[in-house]
Amino acid sequence: MPQEQRPRVVELLAKMQNDDSLERRSLSTKSSKKITWCSEERQRERGSLESARASAMLFSADARAHEHIKAQLQDELDHIQKTSENCDGALRTVLQDATNVSQALDGTRQDDAVAAKVLNKALNGLTSLRDQWWGHETNNPVGTAMTSLTGVKQSFEAQAEACEGLQKESSDSAKMVAGRARDLLAALDAEGRKLELMRDFYAKRKRRSTSMKDLYDSQVISAEAYLRNLDQSCGTGVLEQQSHETQADVRALNDADMVFKGQPIKAPHLLRGSSKSLSPVEEAALAMGVSID
Q1: Where are the beta strands (DSSP E) in the chain?
Q2: Which sequence spans correspond to the domains of the chain?
Q3: To 5 degrees, how large is the angle CA 246–CA 250–CA 253?
Q4: Which residues contact 164 (CB under 8 A, 6 or more apart)?
Q5: Which long-range contacts does 17-25 make (Cβ < 8 Å, 24+ apart)?
Q6: Which of 243, 247, 240, 239 is nearest to 19 (CA)?
Q7: For each of the chain's 293 residues, which pLDDT tens digit applies?
Q8: Element housing 283 (H / E)
Q9: Measuring CA to CA, how many Å separate 193 from each of 36, 62, 77, 78, 178?
Q10: DSSP readout, 26-69?
Q11: Residues 284, 255: contact at Cβ < 8 Å?
Q12: Quick one: how far is CA 262 from the chain centroid?
């Protein structure tokens, strides 16, 4: 290698060393900025992760509470509906019994009235017979019979009047019971409607809380995945992986300068595994990337 090339080698070596120093400072600055950014990003994302986890737990508890209240309201609504059915059945039974009693009393009253009319007609006939055959004498057998029949007729008339009174009393009682039963059914229906509205309200709240829980669960998954990616991209191994080409060029030029000075160099790492003996000039040429073949 001509000695005239040494100034060029020295110039390149100085430039490469200066560029390498600048690159090292730049890499150091970039590395420091990246470390700071990674730290801030981890802190921010961990805060987001904890917030998402807390929100997911909150909405999960909220959904369970709404489900519990909704179930209680449904139980109360079922109880009211069952009570309404029982009350309605009892009302129907009372009204049917009242109708049956009224019909029975009406039939009895009519029978008693008819019997009284029959006896009255018989008494009219006996009166004519008594007047015709015995007149108004004492110890008249027709008169004795008429007295007995008159008592029976009065008994039938009294029973007819009693049946009419019982019929009216039964009807009034049935109407009173029916009125109160209908009031109870109306109150139960109104309460049932309120419970249905409350149940539907808490069912809607439960669905909304479940939806929000699912949303925050997905945010937790995303945040965890992002933190894993940060751990991979911000690891010390990644930050330390820098290009060694400039350093290799600097070593090559430094070796060449040592050759020009007549100093020995260590170049086994430049021989790429070759076992061939090289002269100092050949070693310098290899260091500069010049083929010696």
Answers
A1: none
A2: 3-242
A3: 135
A4: 105, 109
A5: 17/250, 19/246, 20/246, 20/247, 20/250, 23/246
A6: 247
A7: 445 555 665 566 566 556 555 555 555 566 677 788 888 888 999 999 999 999 999 999 999 999 999 999 999 999 999 999 988 888 888 888 878 877 777 777 677 677 667 777 776 766 666 666 655 555 666 666 667 777 777 777 777 777 777 778 877 888 888 888 889 899 999 999 999 999 999 999 999 999 999 999 999 999 999 999 988 888 655 445 544 455 555 566 566 656 556 666 654 444 444 445 555 556 555 655 555 65
A8: helix 280-287
A9: 61, 25, 9, 12, 22
A10: HHHHHHHHHHHHHHHHHHHHHHHHHHHHHHHHHHHHHHHHHHHH
A11: yes
A12: 85
Structure tokens at 170: 């039964």
How many CB atoms sit inside 10 A of residue 12's CB?
Answer: 17
Name the DSSP class of 137. -
Contact of 142 with 134, CB cutoff 8 Å: yes
- The DSSP letter of residue 235 is S
Q: Which two tokens stand for residue 176?
A: 């009173």
Six-digit token pair at 63? 């959904």
Query: What token pair was written down for 214?
Result: 């699912």
Question: What DSSP state is assigned to residue 132?
Answer: I
Pick among 1.10.1060, 2.10.240, 3.40.50, 1.10.287: CATH of 3-242: 1.10.287
What would the two tokens of residue 181 be?
């039963």
Q: Quote the pLDDT of residue 75.
A: 94
